Amino acid sequence: MFTTTSLKYALALALYATITSFAVAAQGTAGLSSVSCGNNRYTKQQIDAATAEGCRLSANNQQLGNSRYPHQFNNREGLVFPASGPYQEFPILSGGAVYSGGAPGADRIVFNPNYQGSCTFIGAMTHTGAAQTNGFVSCSVSRSSVVTTTTSSSLSSSSAAKSTSSASKTSSGGPTATTTGPATTSSSSASPFVVMGGQGLVAWLLSAAWMLAL
């Protein structure tokens, strides 16, 4: 049976976990699966780490390396991102380490240091494959979500599914059960990032804080 102390301890742990998960969501990487820049593929954990370091340095007005990262990215290439600037760029290294100075490599994460009050991952880009020296092209950002981006191929698949469903109804003489499949992964260089529901989070935080104060 829970005592008052143990209940408060459990609530404190849950509150900490919620705040931690919200910080990642606010960082703009919620739902992110991976990022591919040329032949380099980065996991969500690597993107999180690079974004966190870039945001930390930006918040403290610090820069690393001869090119002084993070620094402003003016987007002269006209790359498409899911949110407006100002943009900052920061290296992400194919070896797995977080950039701490020296050669930056070809790949970058892009973040907005103050998107709706939070330092937020916006996308990724690379020098690999760019037409101009020191130019950039977008990396491919894959996200897993219950809501997927509609494309021509998905529309065709949907039409085919409807046709199959209609044929099934006709042959059986009645409606057939429909099963919703698992979440799918959409891949795009400009996928919208996932935003955590703020009202539900605030309600949970206030309730937890009130119970802890009892």
From TrEMBL:
Cited InterPro entries: N1-like, Ribonuclease/ribotoxin
Transmembrane spans: none
Renumbered residue ranges of the record's region Disordered: 153-189
Family: Belongs to the ribonuclease N1/T1 family.
Entry's EC annotation: 4.6.1.24
Keyword Nuclease: yes
Catalytic reactions of this protein: [RNA] containing guanosine + H2O = an [RNA fragment]-3'-guanosine-3'-phosphate + a 5'-hydroxy-ribonucleotide-3'-[RNA fragment]
UniProt KW keywords: Disulfide bond, Endonuclease, Hydrolase, Lyase, Nuclease, Signal
Signal peptide as annotated in the record: 1-25
Molecular function GO labels: hydrolase activity; ribonuclease T1 activity; RNA binding
Pfam families: Ribonuclease
Organism in which the protein naturally occurs: Podospora didyma
Protein name: ribonuclease T1
Superkingdom per UniProt: Eukaryota
